[in-house]
Amino acid sequence: MTTISPDLTVLVEFSRQFLSGGKRFRAQFAHLGWRSVPARASGPSSPAAGVDSAGAADGLAGIVSAASALEIFHAAALVHDDIIDNSDTRRGAPSAHRRFESLHGAQGWAGHPGEFGQASAILLGDLLLGWSDELLDEGLDTAADRVSGRRARAEFNRMRTEVTAGQYLDILEEQAWITQAESELFDRAVRVIVFKSAKYSVQAPLVIGAALAGADDVHLDALRAFGLPLGIAYQLRDDLLGVFGDAAVTGKPSGDDLREGKRTVLIALARQRLEHADLSTVDRLLGRPDLSPEQIGVLQRIITASGAVDRVETLIQTNVAEALAVLDGSPVEGAVAEELTEFAGTVTRRVY
Question: 135, 159, 185, 301: which sits with the fewest CB atoms below 10 Å from its CB?
Answer without folding.
Answer: 301
